[in-house]
Structures are given as structure tokens and as C-alpha cells.
Amino acid sequence: MHSLAGQVFLLQLAVVVLLVAATLVVLVVQARRDVMADARNRTLTAAQTFANSPGLVAALNSANPTAVLQPHTEAARKAAGVDAIIVYGLNGVTLTHSDPGQIGKRIIGPYAKAATGKPFTSTFKGSLGLSVISAVPVRGPDGSVVAIVSVPVTVEKVQHRVNRQLPFLFGGAATALGFAAVGSGLVSRRLRRQTHGLGPTEMTRMYEHHDAVLHAVREGVLIIGGDGRLLLANDEARRLLDLPTDAEGRHITGLGLDEDLAGLLASDRPATDEVYLAADRLLAVNKRLTAPHGPVGSVVTLRDTTELRALSGRAEVARERLKLLYDAGLRIGTTLNVKRTAEELAEVAVPRFADIVTVELLNPVLEGEESSGTAPVITELRRSAVAGLDTDDLLHPVGELIPFIPVHPVSKAMAEGRPVLVEDLNASDGWRAQHPERAQRILDQGIHSLLVVPLRARGMVLGVVDFWRARGSPPFEEEDVSFAEELAARAALCIDNARRYTREHTMAVTLQHSLLPRGLPEQSALDVAYRYLPAQAGVGGDWFDVIPLSGTRVALVVGDVVGHGLHAAATMGRLRTAVHNFASLDMPVEELLGRLDELVAQIDAEEATAEDGQGTITGATCQYAVYDPVSGRLALATAGHPGPAVVRPDGSVHFPQLPVSPPLGLGAGLPVETAELTVPEGSRLVLYTDGLIEDRTRDLDAGLEALRSALTGPDRTPEATCTAVMTAMLSDRPRDDIALLVARTRRLGPAQVAQWDVARDPAAVAPVRTACARRLTEWGLEQVAFTAELILSELITNAIRHGGEPIAVRLLRTVPISGTAAGTLIFEVSDGSSTSPRLRRAKVTDEGGRGLFLVARFAERWGTRYTPTGKVIWAEQSLHDGATPEAEGAGETLLGQWDDTAL
């Protein structure tokens, strides 16, 4: 037992005994766990099977559930191999049990969880003793719990199954122990023969002087004595240090090593991975002292890290560039602005890849247009971004258009569509020829290397990015080209996305501006000012209109199409055109919005049947108001739009309560309700879109109160009112369009209105003509009296012959709010008939039919509008330059051909 083999035998036998004992314990525990798990699974399966068996709910609802279920539970218990299948009612009364004496008793146990509908398995001491019990709820047809099925298996029965396995486990352990003892004996016997009966001490001494392993390792090993002499050096150490053959036994300082390395090896200082130079190699040196665990001295290991350092350097560079690409993906393209994207490209590459970066783009790209895809011989690019430059006059400044000569690296990169590397700018004749003086200044600043990479996206060349390196940085190499291409490719895609957005945004803005009113029409009823502010992120569909109507009335329109972009702007244009067309027919406000609702529904139907299957539902709101300056009445209707504000002459603000109809397209043919207000002269009508009062920082009520505060106060002009409202309500970055329309009301005074009732008698025409001429004389309009009498007599005659009573005549004189115009003269003849006259050219043989032709010939405009009691035929005559030449030259002839009674 004093030999190494005997000690190994005892060690192996002890290990085997411990392993067999641990295995036996594990098997016993595992067997118990498996049996208990089997009991849980068996009881839960039996309980769930019986709880879900057909007819169980019907048996529970029968008159005697125990009589029906007891035979079935006993049969199921025997088949499942469990101790009992017990059915409990929700009141805890036992309905079935393997022990008939337990039937009918009320039990108390952990069944509340099952009563809530959740099955469970637990170890519980019940009427059968300590048991593994599974309880499962029985659900009725409506899903409610009506009973509980419990299946127990006694722990004693489970333990009995485990005890039956113990003899086999102990027998197997004894057999394994016997085989292990025999095997250990055989191994020890063989080891004793191979070691010749040596003890541990002799074996240790033998392996201390054995250096076979030292010669096999790939690290240099040195053993140095306490006196600094080399005791042992393996082959790898001799190769790394280039030691002489007789190095062993010599002092370490006499081996021709580097002074620093020799000093470390001769000292008693330990070292860990310290790098020293040996010839052309970089060695990582580890040194450990052998004392006090051995003789005085040290053990040194040497590892060649020359190639590892180079690989590590390249790996670090690759890691940094991967991180730079990752950062570029986060920092480039944060906005859809071409110039800002170019600036982000320049900023992300400085100073991690280049000392200076410049970006030049084609002019069409900056304007959102597509480039031609092929570069000309002489390329003109506009500098869009510069980063890393301290002086402003060294390179071309941002915004300058630079014409590059054909031999310049930028021109070559654009023409060939590939990067151009200039390792030494001083030797590049093509680069120096572009601008010799500027090139010399660049070289004097220490800039020595250039890498030009074209920006290509979707097959088009957008421009170039120039990477410059200055003094203190190595020149660009071929390995840098692929990275620069990857960085430029990512940036080019972002620039192209920004270009496409700019193009679409410009188109949408142009379309929207072309569809919005270019100015306010001339009218005399309202003093109007407006503001329109597009959203920061895209063009919306808000619009407004001021439409002059007949009889000096004026229509005010404000609308909003949901969404942004070309679709919203185009839809807005369609709706605005429709409102103009409907208004020209003098439709009532409710009828106009009803027609507009039908139009939007038709647009939605067309979108839904689009061939691409990607129809867009149009969401739009509109408010339409008509102001009559004669009566001061305001008729308005709204379809899903915020109501107007009325600022009274005293400065108080009122938000009228209006009936609100659904948004356009959702009315489903329902009538639109109208409200009428009497507005005092000098009041201000404020119409707006929801972007003015709704914002992410405030709700609708807060927005209305803010608008009330902005409008309340002393009397202001509409222009000043718009300025005050926009100053008070505008946020820094409005997310929706804002349209604001402010109109100050005016009234036509009694001196500007003349009105007569006319009997249905041709003889009544002459007195009205005479009264009309008298009123024109009072107004100082004698020069247009002849034409006015002619127009009025034709209109009155038509009303008498073809209309119905009552017949009335109204004469209005308007004066425009601003401008040099002299105003207009308006004739209105109303009657009780709803039939509308039609203009036609009478034949030579016709006795009549020339009245409306004369009206259309000598009036500037004429038309018909319907009223609740009939119609009004109106005509307008401009007061510019007095009467028309045609009227002056043909008056007597026309009056001689037709008289009032004949017509």
C-alpha cells in the first residue's frame, strides 16, 4: 500500500463506493418521485375523464344522483386502478364514494379551487388517509361548475410500489460495486507493473527532470536558477530567443538578449503578459517564482504575439467600422431633407473614418427631381455639406456650384460610377489641374489623401462624397474603398428617399397652391381677410373660399379633407370646384351641402372599385354660409365642421349653437339642417378649420377658450384679427393645416335699396320704369338710365306674362369696399312662379322671345335663383364708364320695335 499503484487502488475503490452510494440514493429518490408523479397524473386523468364523461350532468340533475352514479364510479375506479372516484356537490355533500358510509356526508377540504373552475392535484389527508388527490370541476351546459369529481390514491399504496423496487436497486448497486472493485484491482496491478513498484516521491522526482513535454509545447519555457543562470530551455524558447546551443548553465545576461528582457529574466520580479522585443518578434512574457514551493529560481513562458497583434489590430479596425456603419444607420436619414441628410453623412464619418468630408450633389437632386442617370463629361455639382474643416476658404463653400473638369477624380467617379482612390494628392495631376492655387493651399494644410465615392441609388447617380485625410492620419488604402462604398450606399438611399419626398411634397404644395384662392374676389358685403398655414409634415386638404352671389350676397366656405399629400390636395380641389359650381346655381345652403355629400359618397364609391384594390375613403368636413347685406341675415350649415365664432361690435365673442350634420360622405341621403342668424353691422364672422383649435397639447374646449380670448377685445380690422388669432393660437410645429377666414359685415342702407310692388298688369310697367329712372337720377346715374329701364322693363314684362303673383321689383346699388370700381347696379324681379326662363335666339318670324336676349346683351350678368315662395330673375349692370356703347347707339331702334304692352 506504500506504492503508487496501491494508493491508486484505494482511491479508485473509494471513488466507486461514493458513486455507487450516490447513484443508489438518486435512484431511490427518483423512483419515489416517478411513482408520485404517476399517481398525480393517474388521478388527474381519471378525474378529468369521469368529469367530462357523457351523461354525468344528466345524472347529477336526476332525482337520485347517487343511485345512478355509484355503479359507474366503482367500475371506473377498478379500471383506472385508483382507490376511489368521489363526486361532490357544490354544497360539499358526497354523492359517490368507495366507502358507502361516506355517502351523504358533508366534507371540508381544499376543493374551493375546483369549485371556481380550476382543477388541481394535492396531497391531502381524507377519509382514506394521506392520499394524492386530484379534483376536477364538472361544468353544466352553460359553462358553470355544477359538481366536483375527486380521485385519490393513498400514499401507502404509492410507497408500497417504491418498496417493491428497492431489492432490485440494492442488488444492482452491490453488483456494480463488485465489478468496480475487480476492475480497480486489475488497473492497479497493471499500473504497479508499469511503474515497477515506485512510490509517489520517486515518481515526482523522475518527472521533475523529464523534459519531454517541454519540447512538445508551442510556448517557450525557461527555468532560471536563483543565481540567474539558465537551467532549462525547450526548443520553442531557443527558437524565439535565438539561443546558442550551450545556453544552459550560462548567465542570462550573457545570452545576447535585449537589455530590458534580460533584466526581467535575471530579476526576482514576476510578470504577466508583458510584451518585449526580441529581434523582429513581439513576445508576451509570463514569469513566476518557484520559491517557496520549490528551489529558489523562476519559470518563464514565452509566446509569439507578432501575428496575433496584427490580427488583433485588423479585428479592432473591423469592429470600429461595423460600429460606424451601425451609427450611420441611426444618424443618417433622420429627416426627409436632402441637404440635412448630406450633412449627416459628412458628420458621421468625421473623424472616425476621415478628417474632412464633403458632399456634392446634382442640382436636380437638391430640387427633388430625378437625375439623368448618366453623367456628362464635365460635371457640375453643388456642394451640399462639409464636416471637419476649420477654415472656410480652404475648400469650396457650401452652396457653391462647382464645375469639375473631366480629369478630376470627381468627374471620373461620376462618369464611371465607381470609387476613385487618390493615395497621394501631391502626385495627382488631374486633381491639381482643377484649381492649382487652391490645391496648393490644401496640400500646405497637410491634406494628403482623397477617396471619392459616387452616391448611387436605384440605378441613378445622385452625386459624390469626398473623404479627405490630413496630417497625422494614414493615406487611404484599397481596404478602405469597400467600407466607403457601403457607407455611401446607405447614405445614397436616404438621400434618394429625401429627394423623392421633396419631389412629392413640392408637387403637393404646387397643386395645393394652384387650387387655393389666389386672391379675394371683389364684392361689397364683407371686408375679408384670411390666413392659410400648411402643416410642418406634408400638405393637407384644408381650403376656404369667398364666393360672390347674386343680390350682393356673399358665400363663405371653409372645408377640410382628412389626410396629407397629393390625394388630399386633389380631393380638396375637386370639392372646391364643386362648391363653386353649386354656388353658381344659387342653391340654398342645405341643398349645396347635400349635393356635396353625394359627391363625396360617389368619390368613395369610385375609390372602392379602383383596379388596384387600394381605395381610400375620403374624409371631409365643410361649412357653408351665405350672408345677405340687405337684411343682415346669415344662413349657414355645417357637415362635421367646427362652428363659427361671431364677434359682436362691442367685442364680445359668441359661438352659435348650430345643428351639425355628419361629415361629407356619411350623410346617407339625410337632409342637412340649416341655421339662420341676424348679424349686426360691423360684426366679424370667424370661420376656421380644426387645426386652429385642436393640438396635441390641448383639447377642443381649451382651444375654443383660447380662440375666445384671442378674439375678445376692442374692434379690429379683419387683417388685425387674423394676426392676433394666429399669434395666440399657433404652435411651434402645427401637425395639421390651418385655414382662418375673418369677415366684417356691412349693410346696404335704405339709400342704396329701392323696392316696388307690381300688379300683374302690363300697364304697371311704365310707372315702375318711371320710378326707376327717378331713383337713378337721385343716385346720380342718369347716364345708365336708358339701359337700366330697358333691362327692367323686359324683366317685369316676362314676370307679368309668364310668372305668378306677388310680383316685386328691387333695385340695388353697391359700392365696392376697396379699389377704384364705381360699383354695380342690380335689378331683381321676383314672382310667385317657380318656372325659370331660358335664353334663346328668336327667329325672324317670331313675335316674341327677344326679351331675355336683350337682357343678356346689355347686362353684365343675369340669372335666376329660387326662393321658398317662387323665384327671382336678376341682372347686374356695371357702372364702369357709364352706359355701354351698344345701348347708347341702339336704344331708340329697340324701343321703336317693341313696346311694353306688346311684349
What Rg is obtained from the alpha carbons, in whole angstroms?
Answer: 52 Å
Multimeric state = single chain
Shape verdict: flat
Could you name the ranges where pLDDT drops below 50 across 5 or more consecutive residues?
A: 882-903
List the helices and strands and how they pair.
Layout: H1 4-51, H2 56-60, H3 65-80, E1 86-89, E2 94-96, H4 112-115, E3 120-126, E4 129-139, E5 145-154, H5 155-195, H6 200-208, H7 212-216, E6 220-225, E7 230-233, H8 235-241, H9 259-266, E8 271-278, E9 281-289, E10 297-304, H10 306-331, H11 338-349, E11 356-361, H12 363-366, E12 379-387, E13 401-404, H13 409-416, E14 420-422, H14 429-434, H15 436-444, E15 449-457, E16 460-469, H16 478-515, E17 526-533, E18 540-548, E19 554-564, H17 566-584, H18 589-608, E20 620-628, E21 633-639, E22 645-647, E23 653-654, E24 660-661, E25 675-678, E26 684-688, H19 700-711, H20 718-729, E27 738-745, E28 753-758, H21 765-778, H22 785-802, E29 807-814, E30 824-831, H23 851-858, E31 861-867, E32 870-878, H24 885-897
Parallel strand pairs: 21-24
Antiparallel strand pairs: 1-2, 1-5, 3-4, 4-5, 6-7, 6-10, 8-9, 9-10, 11-12, 11-16, 12-13, 14-15, 15-16, 17-27, 18-19, 19-20, 20-21, 21-25, 22-23, 22-26, 26-27, 28-29, 29-30, 30-32, 31-32
Helix pairs in contact: 1-3, 1-5, 10-11, 10-16, 11-16, 16-17, 17-18, 19-20, 21-22, 22-23
